Amino acid sequence: MIFSQRIRRNAVKLEGERSSALDLVRGRLVLMSGFFIIVYMVFAVRAFDLAVIQGRTIPHDTGQITQNLQDEKSAAPIIRRADITDRNGTLLATTLKTSALFADPYLIADADGAAKQLVQIFPNLKYGDVLQKLQSSKRFEWIERNVSPDQQFEVLQIGEPGLDFKEKYKRFYPQGPLAAHMLGYSNVDAQGLAGVERGFNKHLSEGRDLKLTLDVRLQHALRREVLAAMEEFEAPAAAGAIMDVTNGEILAGVSLPDFNPHHPPGKKNKEAMFNRLTLGAYELGSVFKIFSTAAFFETRDLPMSTTFDASEPIKIGRFTINDYHAEDRILTVPEVFMYSSNIGAALMGQAVGTENLRGFYKDLGLLDPLDFEVREVARPLVPNPWGEASTLTASYGHGLSTTPLQLITGVSSIVNGGYLVKPSLVMNEETEEIEAEEIRIVSAKTAQRMRQLLRLVVTDGTASKAEVKGLRVGGKTGTAEKIVDGKYDNKKKLSSFVGVFPMDAPRYAVFIMVDEPKGQKHTWNYATGGWVAAPAVARVIASMASILGIPPAHENAPENHFGESLKQFVSAKEER
Amino acid sequence: MKLLKPRTFIIFALAGLSGTVLLHTSQNVQQAEERLETLELSLYREQEKTRMLRAEWETLNRPDRLERLANEFLDLVPPSPDQMTIDDEVLPDSLPAEYQVEESYEPVLQPVMFEAAQQSTPKPSHKPIIKPRAPSKPKAKPQKEKAFGDLLNELGGD
């Protein structure tokens, strides 16, 4: 200011051209000093901002933590693998962030102080151990494997540069092995390798949640009973499924032995990894009589009283067809079914005809690989060429291998009134309306007859142990001999039972199959479907009734007498 | 030339004023952003925590665990069909007198004064109507149960 005043004072004495030149210079000087003043003011304001305003709002430590968390947030995989739940929203698979705390002792500034604070954060750690680790000469020491987000925050607040975290997203299955074969598992790179995890890998990787048709409660009941049957009969393996017959939704699916999805044993234990329900193709035996009998009614509209001569074994080619529960007499259709006569079923198959029977099986989807959401499905082993002998054996479930899931699907399609269902494991809530096109597989009349026959098997036939009071269970037993070295081995059996209830208006189908059960004392050494699988299915159905709240019918209620009209076609038992 | 015409002065003053307002606004924005960031982060942390807790909850509510605990601590058995009735004719017309509620009963929320340390606790006057059957063999298998933390550790740090 003094400087400019002096110039101004001098300027008074000057005139003319020189005066205007000085004015210009003075103007420039003022401009320059003004500019500097403004710049310094900006600096001052910015300094005030940094030191006072921002210094007050952000504590020093949090700045660092914020940064840290920011990093980890942005470093996270772009999309977290989505959750899988059951039909009621119970979690079956989720992705958790696990943090593990490690130390780089080289970078530790204050080992003693850090150790003290760490012990406070993790009460299970010992001060001495931690201090030893922090002072070791290595560059890497695990401190704590599993750190919660809160603990992590506290550790970061210690502000020790030598403490750091390794973070990973891990797939977690809260239900453990409960539904391992249906759910499948995924690897460390979050890629599904089996089951739904594989079938819907893309969907899940995109972070879209998945809702399955399974019901954890039913799944547990089924697994408990299948396991109990397997242990009771010293069987190496077993499988089971529960299906809603009206729409093919799988409510439970079990294959035993199973595995821990957190540590799938892989090739070390192929037995446990093998999904018997969808990947195992078996000759399932007499349960197939459901299909051949339905085909019989469908192609030849004959009355229930039609008879078949089951007194003589049938010889065709190199086969001889015998009865297991031999009656050695002429049987009506209900008798063939309830005593599970192979001869009778073979004669029925013959009456249906090769083309018709094969066509019917094909329509039911028994001859082609299943179209299913789990990709591990087996191709059924179908006789090729399919001659007359194949027709006869296929009528009672031999010479033809299918997966248990195909069987229960086929049974559902018949008992639900004759509409073809497709097995499904994933809930589709939106497309429920679109499913208007229904494919009829058998007539309503045939379906009704089959319901009565199935009920008869439980009330008077081979599956009396499947009865649950008031729930009108119906079903069919199956006891197939396994093929060992190309020959049927009558010691090694595959015992199964498919139960349906309530039989007057079927809603659920339950299938249990036990592989190589051994006869026990309390079963008089029997290991047939009626002894092994039927009681297990009855226990599952009893559990289902209480879980789902299905009321039993009153003793005198008309539905409790469903199917009794068939008894007129059953002649009184002589000795059995 | 006069250096500071009133107009110039006003312009400078306006510039200074707007600068101050700008600074103030920018400060506000900055603070809001910081707050947002903190909130987002705490939200993220809470979400992580919720996930973890949900997983733990589901682990603790596994049907097999509940069943085992129920067998151990409760004398409950699944109702058998003959314990149920859907025939309302069988039911009595009215509740026994001691269970009956006055017609005009309306629940009212009112403060309750507790008396200090009453010695005798009132006992239910009635025994349960349905006596539970003996629990079906609880399949005594003392399998060691893994805590949720152990399960997580199993997932592993490496």
Q: Which segments of chain B are poorly predicted (pLDDT under 50) over 5 or more consecutive residues?
A: 117-142
Give the domain tally of chain A.
3
Mean pLDDT value of chain B: 73
What value does the average pLDDT of chain A take? Answer: 84
In percent, how much strand structure appears in the residues of chain B?
Answer: under 5%
What's the number of extended β-strand segments of chain B?
A: 0
How many strand units of chain A?
Answer: 14
Helical content of chain A (DSSP H or I, runs of 4+): 25-40%
Assembly state of the chains shown: heterodimer
Largest sheet of chain B at a glance?
A: none
CATH topology of the largest domain in chain A: Beta-lactamase
Which structural class matches the secondary elements of chain B? mainly alpha
CATH architecture of the largest domain in chain A: 3-Layer(aba) Sandwich
Q: Give the % helix of chain B.
A: 40-55%
CATH class of the largest domain in chain A: Alpha Beta
Number of helices of chain B: 3
C-alpha Rg of chain A (nearest Å): 38 Å
Biggest beta sheet attributes of chain A: 5 strands, mixed
* Low-confidence runs of at least 5 consecutive residues of chain A: 59-64
Percent of sequence in beta strands of chain A: 15-25%
Distance between the termini of chain B: 79 Å
